[in-house]
Amino acid sequence: MVQIDQSSARIPKYIPIRDSLAHEIESGILLSNVKLPSERTLLEKFQTTRVAVREALLALEMDGLIYRLDRRGWYVRAPRIIYHPQSTKSFMQYVSEQGYVPSTDLISAEQVEATPWDAKHLDIAVGSSVYSIWRRRSINGRPVVVEHLRIRADLFADFLAHPLNQSVTQLMADEYQCVITRANINLFPTALAEQQAKALHVNVGSLGLYICRSNRDQHGRVTDIDQEYWLHDVLDLHFEAQS
After folding, report:
1. pLDDT digit string, tens, across residues 117-131
2. Do 128 and 49 share a structural domain?
3. Is residue 183 part of a domain?
4. How far is CA 90 from CA 85, 87, 97, 170, 193, in A?
């Protein structure tokens, strides 16, 4: 049992619980990706109310120290992945280089006709053939991002015949001699819709980060559009500014 000083009525009950758990996380007593004790166990440990425990957990989530998986419980968050939006490195590359284990699950893949949105962003005609690929990507086993790829079929014949749980960037280079040299990127906070939230095991409306990449090859052609829906606590965005 942890004794908490409640002498000051001005201090909300959840604050000492949050501070105690934060200390255990930051000092390494609670390790990355380890599941926290249940709310009932924490309630008994701190001799407090269920409301106070939940407020403490939500505060730790907002601080980026823990994360919740729907119907599975709370876990200690690993250090954020350093992400350079201007880089053309693939997810597999930059995650591996930082000492983590990336993995990819294919959700769906099909060849479809380009919509007006596809045509505008891929610089092709409406109705042209496009590969539509949905994937879920994980870091050390934790699902962190759902992505929707739209790839020009005229540049990559029989693309769907290849294993699609690998780096698409590397696949394009190895099999089609297509090298991604630059990308246009948009990013902004978003609320995760049902499809993304379900795939990432979080509640609908959870805070996320939307990143849309328009990639170009060594010939200046738009090759694909990659829409990514990230959990909000995964990336540490790094930008370089020059005068």
Report:
1. 999 999 999 999 999
2. no
3. yes
4. 11, 9, 11, 8, 25
